[in-house]
Every structure is written in structure tokens, then in C-alpha cells.
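Q: My labmate handed me this sequence with no annotations at all. I'd like to see what the chain might look like in three dimensions before we decide whether it's worth expressing. Could you predict it?
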Amino acid sequence: MFSRKIFIVVAIVAMAGMFGMMAKSFLASPQDQVATAAPSVAEDPVSVVPQILVAVDDLPAGSFVKSVDVRWQDWPEDAIMQGHVRQGERTVEDFTGSVVRHGIVAGEPIVASKLVRSGERGFLAAVLTPGNRAASVSVNAVSGNAGLIFPGDRVDVILTQQLDVDESAPGRHTVGETILRDARVIAVDQRVQDIARTGEDQTAPVAKTVTLEVQPRGAETLAVAAELGTLTLSLRSLATPEEEGASAAAPSPTYAADVSTAFNRKSSDSAAASRNEIVVMRGNETTVIESK
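A: Here is what I predict for the chain of 292 residues:
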């Protein structure tokens, strides 16, 4: 009898425990059930895609590389070749001011072997357009536009010289003429960049030599002109079409008499004196009176 009571108590306790577990299961939220059922999964680390330096636009041979001409581009690791410029190993500033040795198309990776940096052998030759020459002109503060001419600008070259003419024509003793038009400046002294790099002197020093890109005939013209008289550079507007500078006819020389009317008056005085005439000048008016 006593054993029967113990069995009943144990059965009641077991059933109560089972009903308690069932109630807990029903009261648990779906999120808790999912969290309990789903095993924890470790997050994968974010993979870093390497970047290399590529051209933004087409870079023809002989052009200068500016910071806006290149950018960093994601590139598959297995497609990175030897010679490609990886981010972290080099900077954009390392290639700013370089000259393109062989043409690079837009989107093409930058390869160091296709560029020539300032100071490297063959730099100036890479700047020149095929078939052209580099010729230097000695300048001073006046003839060099007070140091305001920079590589990449385009200029005309003016020759001023003194001619051995008859005294009866003093107005033709001094003459100036444009001997070269639309020549590209490729270097000022030994500077080949149009802007100074960070940390460099930002002032515009007065140049002593300006190097121009000219055709072979133009190089000969500059060499002869340097022996004849004084060379002056005349800066051209960037808005002037290159075709206009190449096709425009050479202007006629400008003589001293074309600049100053004093030479014309002196010539008139000499001519009048030879004819026994009196020249009367009132302001800008000139009257010739014959003497008896």
C-alpha cells in the first residue's frame, strides 16, 4: 500500500515537470528558438581589393603627366603584372611632371617604363614631337616676359637688329620682325614643369634660357638670329588656335620710322634742305615753304 502511494507521487512529479517544460517551450519567442537552434557562424574577414595606377584619358607620347591624368583603380590580384604601380608602394606625385615615352590609352595601367621622369636620361628627347628639335634662346627680365613664361606656353620670337643703311634713311636703321610663330616652350632654364611641386620654391625666377620646340629649319633660324641682334619672346594666348599660328603669313618687318614719326620729320627736313625749302611745323601739321 505504501509502495503504491510512493509510485503515485513520483508519477505526479514527473508529469508536472513534463507539463512545465512544455509550457516553457510554448512561451519562448521565435527569435529565441531560432537562436537556440541555429549554430553560431563566424563572420568572414572583408577582403581588400588591390589598386593600381591607370590613365584617366589618352596620354599621347611627348605629353606631360599631371595629377589629374591618372587615378587609382581596383584590379584583380592575379591580373597585376610586373611593372604596374600598386597603391601603397608609390604615389601619384612620383609620376607628376613625367613625360610619356610611348602613348597610353585611357584606362590602361601606368607602367614606369613608358614614362621618363625629370632628370632621367632622354627626358628632353621624349618631350619633343617626332621630327622636331629643341633650340634654346638666351633671355633676360624683359625679353623673357619677366619670368612669366612657363613650360607648355606658346610664344612668338621677335628679332630686333641694327642695319647699316644710308644716313638719308635713318628710320630704317633699326628694325624688328617676327622670325618664329607659335613655338612651344618645353623648358625654362632646367625646369620642365609648368608648376612647382609641393615644398619647392613657388616664386617665378627670372629665366636666363628658354628652350623651344621647333622644326629643323626653325632651329637654324634661331641660331642665325642670335648672331644678328636681340631675341624677344612674345607670349601667345592659349585661346589662339594652333592652326592660325601655323598658317598665318609672316608679317612685314617693323622699322623705326614705323614706330616713331620723328624719323619721318627728319627725313622731310633733309629733303627740304636739299631743295632750299623751309619746313614749318605746328603741332602735327607740317608746312613746306619754298625759299628764294
